[in-house]
Amino acid sequence: MHAPSDFLARRTRGIGVADISAVLGLNKWKTPMQLYLDKIGESEPTPDNPAMKWGRILEDVVAREFSENKQLKIQRINEQLTHIDQSWAIANIDRAVINPAIAGNVRVKDGRLTTDQILECKTANGFAAKEWGETGTDYVPDAYLLQVQWYLHVTQCAIGHL
Fold it and tell me: pLDDT tens, 136-162?
């Protein structure tokens, strides 16, 4: 596993899931200009905040709950993925969903995952929960839907769970 500073350095070499909403002007926390300054190393690091901290802490809980509820096996992939034809398109997925018809566990083989499904884990506090639409609907905030679409593009997987 790479050190955190190595991870951050590798992120400057491409467009990742945290960047794509800023590129398209859909990120309420970062403008395209701020992203550009990040990529060229002229911005201050974003300080950790409670939402970021709790999102990381709860990712495992969300992933386990998804696995139990959907009766699907999941697997962590501790590797930055790169689109097979677009080396600037990068991704660090939250989890891969194991498809036993393809492989018993997920590996990166010839630059591709040995599965056709990924999982993006999200949490929301009471204030942000209203952005997810009415209970029982499948409405997803645009920035999060875009993240799943980016993961599908980079990984070439067919199904994205959120």
Answer: 888 998 889 999 999 999 999 999 999
